[in-house]
Amino acid sequence: MLVWAFAAYQRAQPEIWDGTAAESYAGGSGTESAPYLIANGAQLAKFEQAANDGTFGLRYAALTNDIYLNDTSDRQSWDEDTAPKNQWTPIGNVTNTFRGQLDGRGYAVRSVYINLPEQEKVGLLGLFES
Questions:
Q1: Helices (DSSP H) in 9-97: which residue ranges?
Q2: The pTM is what?
Q3: Residues 6+ positions from 25 with CB-CB distance below 8 Å
Q4: 14: which DSSP letter?
Q5: Alpha carbon distances (Å) from 93 to 16, 54, 98
Q6: β partners of residue 67
Q7: How far apart, in whole angstroms, are the C-alpha atoms of residue 117 and residue 36?
Q8: pLDDT tens digits for 6-39?
């Protein structure tokens, strides 16, 4: 007798960034052979802060998960008056360009919100050197 079983599948809710920066990375030392491992929004924020305040030079990082910076259930209403909880600061700025590599390894950073209408070159990465 042939029996087909179907398991109920419910997609797990992603971890949404709480707007803080982590104390440490998920691993790595920031070198090309041992990049910082970034598993969540708080670790990505730690990387952004270090790049933007100039505390390190040439650094490497790699994602180990998809990262969600905001809840997107109301994204159609996002504008300058109705912003989501977290606004992203681009990695790399005029004072401290980002030098290194951020390897997505097939993962994505999702629900990025940036509202900097007076600035040019904004995105997940701002100003960087290759």
A1: 41-53
A2: 0.83
A3: 36, 37, 38, 43, 46, 47, 61
A4: P
A5: 25, 10, 7
A6: 109
A7: 31
A8: 444 444 567 999 999 999 999 999 999 999 999 9
